[in-house]
Design brief:
Elements: H1 7-20, H2 27-40, H3 47-59, H4 71-75, H5 83-86, E1 103-108, H6 112-123, E2 128-136, H7 139-149, H8 154-163, H9 168-172, H10 175-181, H11 183-191, H12 193-202, E3 206-218, E4 229-232, E5 235-238, E6 256-262, H13 263-279, H14 293-301, H15 314-323, H16 328-337, H17 340-344, H18 347-357, H19 367-371, H20 381-390, H21 395-406, H22 414-432, H23 438-450, H24 458-477, H25 479-488, H26 494-505, E7 509-511, E8 523-525, E9 528-530, H27 541-550, H28 556-562, H29 568-576, H30 586-593, H31 613-620, H32 632-646, E10 653-654, H33 656-663, E11 669-682, E12 689-697, E13 700-707, H34 708-714, E14 722-730, E15 735-744
Parallel strand pairs: 1-6, 7-9, 10-11, 13-15
Antiparallel strand pairs: 2-3, 3-6, 4-5, 8-9, 11-12, 11-14, 12-13, 14-15
Helix pairs in contact: 1-2, 3-6, 7-8, 7-12, 10-11, 11-12, 13-24, 13-25, 14-24, 15-16, 16-24, 20-21, 22-23, 24-25, 25-26, 29-30
């Protein structure tokens, strides 16, 4: 029985809770979990629970994490969600040969550093270290570096690196062996012998090192005296990685604490708080029903999943429409199948087909119980472990079997891996032959072996799918609160523009800032969302505090007299953001403040079908990088219409976000949009100058190539200008060639 971290009393209390709830059958699960935790917590008597309690207390609510499957944490009231309903038995539970697992904690993105600081203060910097990561110089990289240093032409450098295939097999071979494998490489080495000489000496050396983005180790001992360390910036990190190799931290018996800052956790938590405040509720996440039919039909059946964690991509939307998930379990399956391996094998399509037809081969019990939840398709790592247990494996053996399949090591050859897999083959087939034919058992083993291409952890998938479901629930049932929080967490640029458009589609307008009404963040006024000061370019948190503390203001002059903001550029951006619109024409206000920068009188942008972009650029686009002028797309659309009316040949004019969707591979496309960025570079294949530019509207963007003969004219265009160009053929699914620049709308 657990005695180190959990204690006999805690285990007894947790067991009583299970019995009182009629869940006696899960007591063994609880006991195994306590024993396993105690094993790897022997070095860390209090840290595990202490960190969780700090996170809970500081956030004021319990949040989802990757230990969604912990029965103990649910019973101790650390996590809200019952793993019996939403998760599965943790893979760490074994029969004594306990595997050291990572301790993952997903927290609010903005609270991550607070947790890290607490860990240092609570346990001492000498007992806490961030984990180091490093990268060794590999074949293709060293050839590229050496060739560059020796002045080898870019075309030949690319030829060498392109010839060599990345992978473990390449790193094991000498350069002479590689040259024998690839005739072109042999020719290059003869032409540039110094490249081969120096690259071979450098390969395998330390290329760079840094700090793990989330991992820390905690010890009851002084780590300064027990492990090798690196000084990186102002911090000290372990010189060893986290792995199980000779110099791996797990090999040394240390457990990695992953403190992960997830934006989507922040969004869920903030939306819950806002819903409670606006509707007089006192909900916890566990109060949200997991079977809300309206959520599934409105959001997931229709794939209305813009802003929904994991499911925003076109591929995800397509699968959701096919599957029409009706539960968190099915969302979890979609999440697990939404990966390169399953997609290449057509598994999502097969999953949907089996769900609706019900036609697929059932395995005899007890195998069917394991695979029935995913319609006979092996989807999760835990399913392989369960099959192994049915075959007679111990808990420890089933976990090792899983690891052999899904944790392929770079340093292993395929032969080594196959040998490891083969060591379990006979026992697996013999054990399952009690229930199915030997040939079927062999077939199932081979399916499990192929599983390495797409294997995914079910507990992890369920945990993340819960975050997705909660987001969908809020979007369906409390859309204005949800979108307010989404906008608060949007990045300036296209991201915010996209979310403003989603808000509009849901029936809510996003109003420009108001000097006497806006807050730091976006705010809800009736059925409108008011732009926040914090989203305006150059406006700092101190500026926001100064604006709010001195409000209300009677007029523009009153603001200038009493505001803490004296910088002209900041005042200018407030004007462009609409902060003073309630007092009259913003052009007049602007002229009061800074004469001559804008016309004194607003004029039609399209007088006699002549487009004057100078005025638009200042008046309508001046603070575009802050996304306060989200109507810019309407302006571009109007311009498209004018072009079509002016000249029939512009009938194919469309926005960047429409090109790929509407035109495919067709020629003669005219595209109008805002120049977002331009990069001059050289072609890897020819070494000739070329450019890559991006046009955007508020729904998307389009990249296109510019060849040398068209670069000079294009380089005159500045980011932020409205450009009409014609496009040639697609280079690939994402990028087109520039055919010619047709017009610039900068009123030169």
């Amino acid at each position: 029985m657990s005695k180190i971290l959990i204690g006999d009393k805690i285990f007894s209390n947790a067991s009583k809770i299970l019995r009182d709830r009629g869940l006696d059958e899960h007591i063994a699960w609880l006991q195994q979990e306590c024993d396993a935790i105690d094993f790897y917590q022997a070095r860390y008597p209090d840290q595990y629970k202490d960190i969780q309690r700090f996170i809970t207390d500081n956030k004021g609510k319990k949040l989802p994490g990757n230990k969604q499957n912990s029965l103990l944490y649910w019973l101790l009231d650390i996590y809200e969600d019952n793993p019996i309903d939403t998760g599965k038995k943790p893979e760490m539970i074994t029969d004594g040969d306990v595997d050291l697992v990572d301790i993952d904690q997903d927290v609010c993105r903005h609270g991550r550093q607070k947790v890290i600081n607490y860990i240092y203060e609570r346990f001492g910097k000498e007992k806490v270290k961030q984990i180091g990561v490093y990268q060794l110089a590999k074949t293709r990289a060293v050839i590229q570096d050496v060739a560059g240093a020796l002045g080898v032409p870019a075309k030949d450098t690319f030829g060498m690196t392109k010839t060599i295939q990345a992978g473990d097999a390449t790193e094991k071979k000498t350069f002479d062996e590689l040259a024998e494998d690839f005739d072109k490489l042999k020719q290059y080495f003869k032409k540039y012998p110094k490249v081969k000489f120096y690259a071979e000496k450098i390969r395998g050396m330390l290329r760079n090192y840094g700090t793990h983005p989330a991992g820390v180790i905690i010890s009851s001992e002084n780590l300064d005296e027990n492990i090798a360390l690196n000084k990186i910036g102002d911090g000290i990190s372990s010189a060893w990685e986290e792995g199980t190799g000779t110099y791996g931290l797990k090999h040394m018996g240390y457990v990695k604490f992953d403190i992960l800052g997830l934006k989507n956790v922040s969004i869920v938590g903030a939306t819950l708080d806002l819903v409670n405040k606006r509707h007089g509720l006192n909900w916890k996440l566990s109060d949200i029903p997991l079977d809300d039919e309206y959520t599934f039909k409105k959001i997931f059946h229709t794939a209305d999943t813009d802003t929904i964690f994991q499911f925003e991509s076109g591929t995800a939307k397509g699968i959701l429409k096919d599957v029409k998930a009706d539960s968190v379990a099915e969302l979890s399956a979609v999440s697990a199948l939404l990966r390169p391996g399953p997609l290449m094998e057509g598994m999502p399509t097969e999953y949907a087909k089996r769900k609706f037809s019900g036609q697929y081969e059932r395995w005899p019990e007890p195998l069917n119980t394991v695979l029935e939840e995913t319609y006979g398709i092996i989807t999760y790592q835990e399913q392989i472990m369960k099959l192994a247990l049915i075959a007679g494996f111990t808990d420890s053996e089933s976990n090792k079997f899983r690891k052999v399949l899904v944790k392929y090591r770079d340093w292993e050859s395929m032969a080594q891996r196959q040998k490891k897999i083969g060591a379990y083959k006979e026992k697996f087939i013999t054990g399952l032959s009690k229930y199915i034919k030997e040939s079927d058992a062999l077939d199932l083993f081979e399916k499990c072996a192929a599983f390495a291409a797409y294997g995914f952890n079910q507990a992890h998938s369920v945990s993340y799918s819960l975050i997705s479901y909660w987001g969908g629930y809020f979007k369906a049932n409390y859309p204005i609160e949800y979108m307010k929080v989404i906008l608060d967490n949007s990045e300036p640029g296209t991201d915010m523009m996209k979310h403003i458009n989603v808000t509009k589609k849901l029936g809510f307008s996003v109003e420009r800032a108001n000097i006497n009404a806006s807050q730091k963040k976006f705010s809800i006024v009736d059925k409108k969302i008011l732009f926040g000061f914090g989203a305006i370019k150059t406006i700092t948190p101190n500026d926001v505090n100064g604006i709010i503390e001195n409000a209300p203001y009677n007029n523009f002059q009153d603001f200038l007299d009493r505001s803490t903001i004296k910088n002209k550029a900041k005042v200018e951006n407030l004007i462009f953001a609409g902060a003073f619109d309630s007092w009259g024409e913003e052009v007049e206000i602007f002229n009061e403040f800074h004469k001559g920068r804008l016309p004194k009188k607003k004029q039609s942008l399209y007088e006699e079908q002549k487009f004057n972009f100078t005025e638009l650029k200042q008046y309508e686009y001046g603070a575009m990088s802050t996304n306060v002028k989200y109507l810019i797309n309407d302006t571009i659309k109007e311009m498209v219409q004018i072009l079509v009316e002016r000249d029939f040949k512009f009938a194919n004019t469309m926005l960047p976000s429409e090109v790929r969707m509407k035109m495919g591979n067709k020629m003669g496309i005219y595209c109008i949009g805002i120049l977002d960025k331009y990069i001059a570079k050289r072609s890897k294949s020819s070494g000739k100058p070329m450019g890559i530019a991006t046009l955007k509207d508020d729904n998307g963007s389009l990249d296109f190539f510019i060849w040398q003969n068209k670069m000079k004219k294009f380089e005159e265009i500045q980011p932020g200008e409205l450009v009409l160009i014609s496009l040639g053929r697609f280079k690939d699914s994402e990028t087109m060639f520039l055919n010619k620049i047709y017009e610039r709308f900068n009123d030169e």
